[in-house]
Amino acid sequence: MVTSAHPDARRRFVLGSAGALALGTAAAVTGCGGGGNEEAQQRFGYGVASGDPLSDRVILWTRVNNPGENPTTVQWEMASDAAFTRIVRSGAAVTGSVQDFTVKVDVTGLSPATAYYYRFRHGLEMSVTGRTKTLPDGNATRVVMGAFSCAAFPLAQFHVYAAAADRGDLDVALLLGDYIYENGLTDGEQIAATLLGRKMDPKGELHLLSEYRARYAQYHSDADLRAFHAAVPVIAVWDDHEIANDTWRDGAGGHDPATEGSFAARRAAAVQAFHEWLPTRTSTLPDLQTIYRSFDFGNLLSLHMLDTRVIGRDAPLGRDAHLSGAAADPQRQLLGAIQQDWLAARMQASTATWQVLGQQVLFGRMKVPLSVYDNFTEDSLNEYQQAVDTPEATRTERQRALVTQPFIAHDLNTWDGFEAARENVLNAARTLDKNLVVLSGDSHNAWANNLRDASGAVVGVEFSTPSVTSTGLEVVHLKIPRQILADSFVRMVPDLQYAETTSRGYLVLTVTPEAVRGEWVFVSSVLQNSFSKSASPAFKTLPGAGNRTLLNAPL
Fold first, then answer.
1. Cα(279)–Cα(113) distance, rounded to whole angstroms?
2. Is the pLDDT score of 21 beyond 50?
3. What does the H/E/C string look like for 55-112?
C-alpha cells in the first residue's frame, strides 16, 4: 500500500512512471511479461513453483487446467539435472475443484544445499521445468536472498520478477506481502489496463473465493511471474491486499460489513486462495490463518517469517490518538501475545549467527515533524530543515517552535503505531545477544534503518524492499522533486541511513558469517516493454555487540 499520512491516498494503486536510478551501469533487458487468457487452454499454463524449502524437503506446485475429470491425477518427478537423466524422486498427486485444481507435493528425502529440477505431467502433456534448491545444513558459508513486495498487476509490468529470474544466484525469494491486490478498478483504470494488455477480470473488488481464485489465476498468466517462480523457491507471507486494504485482527479499513458482508467469511476465502495458489507447507500450520513460521539455514541464519496483519494486529490509530501516546500502550498488540512469545522462543533456541525477520511493515522509527505531517510540501520540509540548521542562539521563535514540536509516525500503520510491541522484539534480541536483521515490505520504497531501542542502543538493522509495480512516495508527494524527497527523509529521521522513494525493484540480501550485506536492484520502467537494471548503494552490518549498525559497503 502507499505509505502516506493521508489515509484516502492508500486505497488506490494507480501506477505512474518509475524512473531509472542512475547508480551503477545499466544493462538493457527486454521483458516478456503480459497476461492473457490463452494460458487457460494449456494444461499447465499457469506454470510451476516451489516453496517453503527445508534442508531435506521442498513444496512443489502447479495448477491443472481443464483436466476433463474431477478429481484428477497428476504425475511429478524431480531430478538432479535439467535433462532428467538422474531422477531422484517421483510420484502422483490428486487434485480437484475443492482446491481449485492446484497441486502441492511435499518432496522429502532430499540433500541439503542442493539444486533440483522438477516437472509435472498429465496424460501426455508436460509442464515446463522448474528449478528449486534446498536449504543448507551445518556450517553454511553464504546465502543469497531476494525480497519482494507489492505487485499490482493491471497497470504495470512485472519486470522486477523478470530481472530476478535472470540473475541465477538467489537461493530463495521472500514474498513479503501484497502478492496480489484485491482492489477493483475504476473505468479509467480498466481502460489503461486494457491498453497494457492487462485487463482485469473480475474488474471489481474481491469478496468471494471464486473471485480471489480468479485474481491469482490472472497474476499467474504473467510470463515474468511464471519465469520467476520456475527459477527460485519462495517463502511467502501475506500483507493486507491479499485480503482487504488495511486489514487488522477483527476487520479492515477496506471492508464495510454493512455493504460487503461478513469480514470473517471474506478473510477465510482470501486465505484459502492464498494457500491454494502459493507453495506454502500448510500441513505444519495449526490452521490456515496462522502463517508465521521459521526456516533454519544451517548455523548461518534463522529466518522467522511473521504475520503483522491477521493474527494479532489491534485496530489502527488516528493522528490525535498517536499524538496522545496511544501507540506506546503496553497492551497494544501487533504480533499478538502468542506470536510474540513464539518469536522470542525461536530466537532463544536458535544457535545461528543471524536472526532475520521477514515481515510486512516498516519496523524502524520513521517519525516526522508534525508540521511536515500535516502539510507535506517542499516548503514545510525546507522550513523545518532550515530551523534545525540555524544555531540555537539565532533561531527565531518560529524556528524554536519547529525544532521542539512533536513528531509523529509518517505511517501510522507501521510498527511506529505499536511502539511497545516493537520494544518487546528489540528487548528480546538485546537480552538474548542476537544479531538482528529485519526485512520489510509494504511501503513501496527502499529504506535502510538502524534499529534503536528505548534506551538509545542500536540493536539491529532493517532493510526494506521497494515494490514490484506499485507507486511510492514519488506519486503521493508528486510536487516535491524526487531526490529532495528522499534526502529530506534521511535528514529528518535520525536512524535512517538510506532512502530511495522513486523506483521499483527488489532487495538482495547476502548473508555470510562475517556480515549481512543489503543492496537494491531497480528497474528503469514498469510501463515500457524494455527496461534497464541499476544497482543501488550497498550497506552491511557485522555480528557481535557493538557492531550491529549499518555501514557503507563497497560495490
1. 19
2. no
3. CCCEEEEEECCCCCCCCEEEEEEEECCCCCCCEEEEEEEEECHHHCCEEEEEECCCCC
Bridge partners (DSSP) of residue 215 are none
* Alpha carbon distances (Å) from 227 to 61, 155, 222, 279, 367: 14, 20, 9, 15, 39
- Residue with the three cell numbers 490463452: 38
Q: Concatenated DSSP letters for 272-307?
A: HHHHHHS---GGGSSSTT---EEEEETTTEEEEE--
* Spatial CA neighbour of 548 closest among 454, 440, 436, 438: 436
C-alpha to C-alpha distance for 327 and 384, rounded to whole angstroms: 24
Closest CA to 183 of 163, 159, 161, 155: 155
Among residues 491, 423, 489, which one has the least CA distance to residue 460? 423
Grid cell for residue 290: 496462522
Which amino acid, one-letter code, is at 112? P
Distance CA 298, CA 313 (A): 31
Rounded CA separation 32/242 (Å): 25
Q: What are the pLDDT digits (tens) for 481-515? A: 999 999 999 999 999 999 999 999 999 999 999 99
Grid cell of 133 as nine digits: 534448491
Burial of residue 267, with CB atoms counted within 10 A of its CB: 0-12 exposed, 13-18 middle, 19 or more buried: buried
**H or E segment to which residue 50 belongs:** strand 48-51
3-state SS class at 224: helix
Q: Answer whether residue 464 shows pLDDT above 70.
A: yes
- pLDDT at position 317 is 95
Beta bridge partners of 305: 293, 358
Helix axis angle for 482-492 and 378-389, nearest 10°, is: 40
pLDDT tens digits, residue range 93-141? 999 999 999 999 999 999 999 999 999 999 999 999 999 999 999 999 9
Percent of the chain with pLDDT over 90: 91
- In the numeric block, the cell 474431477 is attached to 70
Distance CA 174, CA 528 (A): 26
Residues 407, 386: Cα–Cα separation, whole Å: 17
Sign of CA dihedral 443, 446, 451, 456: negative
pLDDT of 535: 87
pTM over 0.90: yes
Report how far residue 28's alpha carbon sits from residue 312's, in angstroms, rounded to the nearest whole number.
Answer: 44
* Helical pair 397-404 and 378-389, crossing angle rounded to 10 deg: 100
pLDDT interval class at 17 (50, 70, 90): very low
**pLDDT above 70: percentage of residues in the chain:** 93
| 56-90 CB burial, b ≥16 within 10 A, e <16 | ebbbbbbbbbebeeeebebebbbbbeeeeeeebbe
Classify 177 as helix, strand or coil: coil
